[in-house]
Amino acid sequence: MVNFSNVQLKGLAIHRxxxxxxxxxxxxxxxxxxxxxxxxxxxxxxxLKPLKRSEEFFRFQHEESLExxxxxxxxxxxxxxxxxxLRESANILIHLYRQxxxxxxxxxxxxxxHFSEIVIDDxxxxxxxIFKAEQKNTFLTVxxxxxxxxxxxxxxxxxxxxxxxxxxxxxxxxxxxxxLSVDSNNYDADYWLHDxxxxxxxxxxxxxxxxxxxxxxxxxxxxxxxxxxxxxxxKFLSDSVDYFTTHDTFNxxxxxxxxxxxxxLATEFKSYQTDFALDEVNDFDISKRALKTAKxxxxxxxxxxxxxxxxxxxxxxxxxxxxxxxxxxxxxGMHYYKVYFNEEME
Length: 346
Description:
Blueprint: E1 2-3, E2 8-17, H1 37-52, E3 58-60, H2 70-80, H3 85-98, E4 108-120, E5 123-133, E6 137-144, E7 149-156, E8 164-169, E9 178-183, H4 191-196, E10 199-201, H5 205-227, H6 230-246, E11 249-251, H7 252-259, H8 263-275, E12 283-285, H9 288-296, E13 301-303, E14 309-311, H10 317-323, E15 324-329, E16 334-339
Antiparallel strand pairs: 1-4, 2-4, 3-10, 4-5, 5-8, 6-7, 8-9, 11-12, 13-14, 15-16
């Protein structure tokens, strides 16, 4: 868990990156930016608010050696010598520009911020933030004239929405540091996280919890539903969520014994572990925060080709078993669902 409550902004460099494909010109600042206390507070909110909602840590990687990962090396240099922020932030800008080869990638203002007083799991660390503002919003200002109020239209950054950003923490250096990342504009999914940062998930309890829930969802769609019907699928999902909710630790044998008593299905479930990078993960502590997010992504709708949808509650599968019937109408030559109820709800 990351605690930003006492975070301090030690230094800030602001550059502007353009699109390499369009041969546009960058703007590289020649000195660090000094801001007022009021602006400082707004910037901290703009930078950190989206990252506080991030649940999973990433780490830098490189197929040969970490020292060849550009952003990793620039961050390490800044952590070793804070005075190098301006120089290394310019290197970060140039590296970002070199990845801007897709014509859809937008120009934007790049903020490189050096933070202190961040706490990760009781460890006090520094942080390096890299933030890109791509979208400009129109807003109006109203000022007083001699005899009237004057309205002027301006463009600026909406501090309620960060387009792209990451914060690198000065911990676990030999394992690629730890970082959080956010990308709100997914017009090129690989550009920020993979091409620029070259980072991948840290395979910790949060990663395992999220992936096992995704595994359960995929297994329910591809194996359980075709073998039975949607009611069986909802029951499987409900039992899976109940296990993760009522247990602090996950054990594969215990999970399959309780949720998938059918030996054939349990064997198929085990084969799914490889597809989700979980083939050697049979025990871990369950992350309740990751579970909460994963539950919201579980599909609980029956979508029919007649453009009708039936929404089921996987937290209460007995309702589907008691009040939903599936059949086949010989006259129409079509399947049907029969739903029992007492009254319609608002």
